[in-house]
Amino acid sequence: MQPNLQPAAARAYLQLRYGYTHAEELSASEVRPLHQRKLALIAAACTAAVQAVATGAATEGHWRVLADAANLTETLLDMGEFDDPDHLFRDGVAAVVTLSRLHGDGAPMCLRPEQLEHLQDFCDAYVQMLQQTPARTYIRAHRATERRVRELLLSSYGRSETHEFIVI
Fold this sequence. Notes:
Blueprint: H1 7-14, H2 22-27, H3 36-55, H4 60-78, H5 88-104, H6 113-132, H7 135-156
Helix pairs in contact: 3-4, 3-6, 4-5, 4-7, 5-6
């Protein structure tokens, strides 16, 4: 049974291109992490987003970077690629969820000091995690994250679910 979606919304959303193709996943290295240039861009974007939150100047772009990092981290944890014994990643994801609620309510995207510290630690750990993750695993997790978010959006459209989505 297909979800009850507005035809225009369904067509537009389902036609969005994935960030990586299946061919890119298969051709990526099983051992080496992403190229250093790509990792440097990811690290710089994450650090800039945390700094923007710290100064109270976060934009939608900063929110997207943090949300992508949180979603990808959740996928890698769910795939069993990494452990989170100290709940560092889960605390960081919780801080990003708090930011999403503030953003969705139109409030400034700022956090309490302990939440900001969790977010900074999360960003550092996220970058370290990506430096250790093989490129193929990263791309597989990226594609799985996109699928998971799309499935959640499609399955909860028009229903009262417990998921919160901030669509920008």
